[in-house]
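Sample entry follows:

:::
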Amino acid sequence: MVRVLFLRRRWMKLAGSGVILLAGMVFFLLNQKGLPVIAPSAPGELTEHLTTIFTARARALVNGNYEGLEAFYDATTTSGRFALNHEIGRIKYVQEWLQKRQVTLTGSHLDLAVVDSSSEGDKGWASVSQHLILSYRHQGEPQETVNRMGFRTLHWVELVKRDGRWLINRDWYWDPFETDDLKPEIAPGTAICKALPPPVKGKYRREAAVAYADRYSGVRLGPGDGRYNRKYRDFTGLGGDCASFASQVLSDKEAGGIPRDWVWNYHNGEGSQAWAQAAALVYYLLDSGLAVRLARGDFQEVTRSTSNYPYGAVNALQPGDIIGYEEGGELSHVSVVVGRDSAGYVLVDSHTADRYHVPWDMGWKSRTIYWLLQVVY
């Protein structure tokens, strides 16, 4: 994680210095079999090779078949092999998650922007923005059922030219799919509940909070989407923007409308620790009385039936509530609950990595500890 964060800062430094220029936009559709239908691509040899590489990777992620991906990586270097193995690992994770949760992918849409690219001799560099929308349904649901979840990843890619082809030597990005724990031991069919909990009364504007989260999730679902709210600084290069995004959802006048104070505040491009840091935000919400913790535990603990939560604590969450993610004893991420899919699975939005209507546990490990916070303001 430290390695990725350092390189992410490099990306943000490049962006802030004005180096990033719009070089081309490429749109894809992947059908149910994962075969790409590609619109006319932007000119440039490097861009064309990147288009081919990212299309093949998206196809492999969707259909689970990663054979042949090695053709796009420089396997003669340690960094090239690492990038390839990381990609294979995340594909395995996604396929295992789908199997454990009894979910079937039914289609996908890839929106790829090669934001900037350059080359010198046999070495190349590029910054790439990828929006991936996955359609899915739960097993047993009608064929016409469609749920959509979306991800945005920003890549800084180093390439090398071998035998006339550009190959990936390094690929740095915030990955929404963890790859070092590929066997989440979870019983199939758990954590699903269509029985909605009674609404929480209060001043918190939950519908507006969800609408804000969807609008500024960073994931492009159509024209005008795929942006952060420019009123706020992007803290991605300073450790992550997830807490700032959650703070916006909770407090912005267009969103939840919870009043800020001197501990939890944003002013002149700067956010307080409670505003911009995941653990500090969680503790602030609890200590201030703005939220209560329904449960803290691993997947099985927060989904099992108890006397207080017959359908599991996670199913007591309401749209606009907060989930914290603890790994290795550290609260490192927060997301915003935005609703449920057709089967009743709780969905979240977040920044870093950007997620839109993603199942709340997708991309996390079997060892992850979840903090379920209900806003009571």
About this structure: The first strand starts at residue 24 and ends at 30. Residues 2-172 form a domain with the Nuclear Transport Factor 2; Chain: A, fold (CATH 3.10.450). Residues 147 and 167 are 35 Å apart (CA to CA). Residues 1-43 have pLDDT under 50 and may be disordered.
